[in-house]
Amino acid sequence: MEPKLGFHELLHVFSFLEARDLLCAAQVDKVWNEVSGTKELWRQLCLRRWSSCKTSQMTLGTQTWKEYYLCRSELEFRMECGRPEKDFICKAIAGHTGEIDELAYISTKECRFDGQEKSMVCTVSSDSTVRAWDVQEGTEIWSSPLQPAALVNVVTFPRLQLAITVDERGLIKVWGAENGWEQASFRLPTFSSALQACEHPEGPFLLVACAEGFLYALTVPQLQLRSRTRVFPSSPTSLLCSPDCQWVFASTQNSDLGPKVFHTRSLLCLVEDEPPVSATLPIWLTSRACWAPDETARLMVTHRNDNGTQLVITTYELRTKQSREGVDVVVQQMASFLLPNSMIPPHLMKGHGSQVILLVSGSELALFTIHGVQLAAFQDHQRPITSMWVDQSRVITASFDLSLRVYVWNKETKPPVLKSCYHLLGGSHRWARGFTHVEGDSMSIVGVEARNIGTSVLRSYCFQVQRGSDDCIS
């Protein structure tokens, strides 16, 4: 009779198996069933499959790692299939009497399958209100009182459960996400051209650019002024924070003024009579930019070449260096390439991983590496794309053709391959002009559907998980 392997020997052997193999092993006998369900085996499978799945970034609740793996695998399967009613439920959510100008998720974007998962979004509208919505239920949670002017932008701090809005006159307000109570306000001298929520290691703060070319850093939630810096004289400024909020990119479109990068810590701890730590990039006529989400300080910028005839995408790495005079910003060019002459100038730009750039030109979505290799081009929409949302698993585009297109990353290839999966349809063309915005989290997708009568509704698509069906494990 052959000797049997003990618990620890089996555990070592099982550590080389994939999820489906472990599920099969569990059917052999009682010992194999016990070993194949060991917490550490399934925790390692989660960490290998989802790099963001770290204990500090997720909440297991009452779940085991095995249950989490099965549920999340099923969720990804359903998001890739996109079968109405079977994989997701669609709801139209109405309430605003004007057009929705912006939306943002209030709920954290972590995956939870312990019965406590809930998706919430916040919207601002020309009807001068900010509102919060339960995406799964399709109901309004709260609405603010009528504000003095139309609200034009909103950002959120999910960890703090705060929403921050700005109106067309430059009045900024902080709202409690759970109850809609106003907590603080700050008035700019002119309207705001950009708003960025920053979760900095030294504490959360808000970056605001105003039309006269100043950059404001405000504490959250008090909205106390930390610094005020002139960036571009009398020019509306765009802002873009790096993934770790250590850097902020500031630019003004199609200007001879080169864009700037600021080290955000210097904006929070400004020394009197000393400017913040910054550098001007050696480019001009900037149009779009994005950060590489898997890198701490990799910036990709679309701009014109030296004679202004062609569009170029240049990639930079940023770091700080201590000198006798203080701290300097070191800007290193990593790559640069010309966009094809036949390509319409892109109006949307996002990064994926550390090497991939997504560009939207008209109704086309194109993917390039930072070295200019074109990976794919999709023309799934009949009318121009208005919005794009990108995360580690999916890409979603919104269009005036009244549809959302869902794409899924195949991360097993290098660089990753994007697969076009399915359309999510809006309402009737008789009543609607198309989708103007799209956002998503781990469990849902929300689009803003503009109506012909000057109003907007939310259209939510919530994906259903049957608590980890084994059939979804491949």
From TrEMBL:
InterPro entries: F-box-like_dom_sf, F-box_dom, F-box_SCF_Substrate_Recog, WD40/YVTN_repeat-like_dom_sf, WD40_repeat_dom_sf, WD40_rpt. Coiled coil: none annotated. The keyword Cell membrane does not apply. Pathway: Protein modification; protein ubiquitination. It comes from the Eukaryota. Residues 10-48 form the F-box domain. Keywords: Ubl conjugation pathway. One of its GO terms (cellular component) is cytoplasm. This is F-box/WD repeat-containing protein 12-like. It comes from Puma concolor. Gene3D superfamilies: 1.20.1280.50, YVTN repeat-like/Quinoprotein amine dehydrogenase.
